Amino acid sequence: MRELFPPDALETAAAEPAESPATDNLGTARQVKRHFGEVSDMWLWRRLRDDPTFPRPLVINGRRYWRWSELRIWEDKHRVMGEALA
What we know:
Elements: H1 9-15, E1 26-28, H2 29-35, H3 41-50, E2 58-60, E3 63-67, H4 68-80
Antiparallel strand pairs: 1-3, 2-3
């Protein structure tokens, strides 16, 4: 019987960091807006237009998805700087 994975495949997968792009969770625009306190579509649009440090979404089948790890980094950076997020 053939093995589906090479013997070291599971060890390699376990050695990857938890926040690698392959395992990072994605959030929709609705989830991102809810996360930042029920902000409006305009708030999200302005972040994308005016803030070059705001994470850019991935577009999959015409829908925007953000990596939660990138959003957490952006959020933490702005909290440290004492800026209002909303």
